[in-house]
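Predict the 3D structure for this chain.
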Amino acid sequence: MNQLFTCLGILCALFFTTPGFSQKAKDKRVDIKYVTLPAEKLPTDFTTYSVSVTGDNIAIGGLSTTSLENSIKMDGFKRVGTAVDGEFGHLRISVNTGEVSTGRMAWKTRQESHKDDKGVVTKTNYYWYELPCSGITSYKIVDPEGNILSSGNQNYNSTTKSKEYTSSASLTAQESNLRSSLRKGYAADMAQGAVGEAKSVLSTKYDFAFASDDVLYYWIKKHPEEIAFEAKLDKTIAVFKALPANSPASEGLSQMEECIKLWSRFSEKNPGSDKDLQEVYLACNANLAYTYFYLDNLDESEKHLKRIIAVGEKEKKAERLLERIGKIRTQMNFHNIHTMHYSRDLTNALPPSKVKELEEEKEQLAADNNSLPGFMVVKTDTVSGTFMRTKADEDFIFGPNGNTKFMVDKAGKMEEQDITKSDVSEFVIGDRKFMRMSFSPCAKGKSEAASHIMEQLYDSEKIKLYKYYPVSGALSSAANEFAYQKKADAAPVSLMDTQFLLFNKGMANYFSDCGDLKDLCTEGGFKMNEDDLIKAARVYAEVCE
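Done. Predicted structure below.
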């Protein structure tokens, strides 16, 4: 008998786990963070904001000016000082909380009857005060030129009510306190309402605001891969929980790869009229539609939404998401920002006053120096800036006693960076490239090979030409040197080396593997200058076999 029940149990287990039998989609909520695009387009150099909240209602309502100002936040802009220190942002948000005015407080009463189980009626009188209040609040958002970008005001005119008392004497005894309390509460509501209105306008019209949606994802119960479905949904919850609003969508897609693979397996084949298969089909397509939507692949999201609409009845959520995709595409095209995870680098964002100071400093530097844009590579980091060289000089001299400075904008100030440091692997000035290389200068007698600054004058697979720049104050700082490096040379060979003391003969020997070039060198066809040396290198690279 026991064996019979065991067999029946096994058969039942197999029956109830057969694909398509009583499969049911269960949902879990997934919190997904993203960045909204604003309704208005501001200049791209608008990167800061400042906030000022004023008005008597702050004190009347028992509120803190600092707390109210700090509650006005922007995610896509950097907060800077206020009118207190004279420093304003590109967006200047001013909120006036106004001052509440009150009328004559009125006594109010009502009677309430209650019948108990025995039919006995009890009458209770209730008493309270009502205080007429009115006032005006306003907000204003202004750009650096004083133009009003947005403004608004709110008229308040209503009655506020105290709590109800069952004793008229108790109410009368609290008249003064209740009047103060009602006035205080109304003033606080006005102040917080004004701040709330400014916050709403900032968020929708100007900010790249962080937002989140609570989205229903699905897993399939009583399915052969029930465990996998639930595990992938739990992973989805964890991935989106850890993903900041402005993290690149590619990060989320890479972490969701396994989940997408599982859902895709059951999202392709149309289930026809089979209700159980429809349940799985719709659930998997919904998961994919949401995943692709929030991770910037709107085309794929649309594809899965259309599958849902084609099979499911009354699929209003899918239709609403399709409409939302259309609106988001319009916004993306308007801003030319095609992501729901837009991130602004606000590290060096400065208020307009600091920007002006920095521009004036740059103008002064430009007046005293020749300037060229450039960058240096420090280990794996690239640092951009401007190279300045004294106008009277024609060539670069690097080092503490040199004539060339590399200036970088650091938090609103121009700071000099040392390009001669050993961890600077290369730097570029305009269209000229300099790098650190192993080289033996020979101007004051050949020295041991060390790391030196070399400018690349000519580059080809067969030969390269460099110019050596001594660091001002170093032992071998007598002069610049030119150096060739053939493909077989381990390091650049200085043309100040002893083998080139008889220059024509030295050049002929160096290029002895090219007969025509050797003859030109022997005949004195090249001099020790940049143009001639580049010409010789070109002949070797382009003519010689």
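The CA atoms of residues 293 and 301 lie 5 Å apart.
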